[in-house]
């Protein structure tokens, strides 16, 4: 497949397992995943990961919620290693766009991963702000869009179209919910998809024929029926 798969998580053991498996070509982290993974020191965790994984891109997100703080943190994170991509959200919690910040950092050569992108308008502004000569990702939260009843396909397709002539600006399908999302993202032309480890495990076992899945399903039902000991017809 043309699409590259990045593991989405913040557990060192899980990241190393995926690294050694050969299933992935990069990694992304975020504050929520760090909390879930039990990370207690951001810098220590980041440097431990970067000390073990040197040949794949790894994204680390700023924690500040103001533009000045984001800028300082982004410069710090970008200095950690050549394979680091610094994650900048598309806006602050007050709804203030980060486009000018993105423009300045990208112009300085920082490799950025612009996150929490949901609209075509955001895509346009972000792509305009990113330096076309610097590696960068536009992360569209397709799974979260779908969770809210919105179709992410049009936004991903739009992003693919507006970055078509910018090979270093890559579209990333984020918040993957199922194995089929990987095929969707590939078909739409996204260059990258982030996938949590539990879905990567399913991806590694892909390829079962629909008939075999049908047979597995009814066999599973039969096993559960036997364990219940229920009867429907009265003797």
How would you summarize the topology of this molecule?
Layout: E1 4-8, H1 12-21, E2 26-28, H2 31-37, H3 42-52, E3 58-61, H4 67-78, E4 84-89, H5 99-107, E5 112-117, H6 120-129, E6 136-141, H7 142-147, H8 153-162, E7 169-174, H9 180-188, E8 192-195, H10 197-204, H11 210-228
Parallel strand pairs: 1-2, 1-8, 2-3, 3-4, 4-5, 5-6, 6-7, 7-8
Helix pairs in contact: 5-6, 6-8
Fold and architecture overview:
- The chain has 235 residues and is α/β, with parallel strands linked by helices.
- It has one domain: Alpha-Beta Barrel (TIM Barrel).
- The chain has eleven helices and eight strands.
- Helix 9 links the parallel strand 7 and strand 8.
Element pattern in H and E = EHEHHEHEHEHEHHEHEHH
CATH topology: TIM Barrel
Distance between the termini: 57 Å
Radius of gyration: 20 Å
**Highest-level CATH class:** Alpha Beta
How much helical structure, as a percent, in the residues?
40-55%
Q: Average pLDDT value?
A: 95
Main sheet specs: 8 strands, parallel, barrel
> Which word captures the global form?
globular
- The helix/strand class is alpha/beta
Number of domains: 1
- Number of helical segments with 4 or more residues: 11
CATH superfamily: Aldolase class I
- Please give the CATH architecture: Alpha-Beta Barrel
Q: Strand order, main sheet: write it out.
A: 1-2-3-4-5-6-7-8
**Strand segment count:** 8
Low-confidence stretches: none
Brief overview, please?
The chain is α/β, with parallel strands linked by helices and 235 residues long.
Features:
alpha/beta, 11 helices, TIM Barrel, eight-stranded parallel beta barrel, 235 residues
């Amino acid at each position: 497949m043309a699409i590259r798969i990045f593991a989405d998580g913040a557990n060192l053991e899980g990241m190393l397992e995926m690294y050694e498996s050969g299933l992935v070509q990069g990694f992304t982290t975020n504050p929520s995943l760090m909390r879930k993974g039990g990370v207690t020191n951001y810098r220590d965790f980041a440097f431990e990961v970067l000390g073990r994984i040197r040949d794949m891109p790894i994204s680390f997100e700023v924690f500040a919620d103001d533009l000045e703080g984001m800028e300082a943190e982004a410069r710090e994170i970008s200095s950690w290693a050549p394979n680091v991509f610094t994650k900048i959200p598309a806006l602050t919690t007050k709804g203030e766009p980060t486009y000018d910040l993105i423009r300045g950092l990208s112009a300085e050569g920082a490799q950025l991963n612009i996150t929490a992108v949901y609209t075509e308008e955001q895509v346009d502004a972000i792509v305009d702000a990113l330096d076309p000569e610097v590696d960068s990702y536009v992360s569209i939260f397709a799974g979260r869009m779908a969770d809210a009843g919105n179709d992410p396909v049009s936004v991903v397709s739009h992003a693919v179209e507006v970055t078509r002539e910018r090979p270093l600006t890559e579209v990333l399908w984020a918040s993957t919910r199922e194995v089929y999302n990987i095929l969707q993202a590939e078909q739409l032309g996204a260059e990258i998809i982030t996938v949590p480890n539990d879905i990567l495990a399913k991806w590694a076992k892909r390829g079962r024929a629909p008939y075999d899945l049908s047979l597995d399903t009814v066999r599973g039902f039969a096993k559960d029926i036997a364990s219940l000991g229920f009867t429907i017809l009265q003797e």
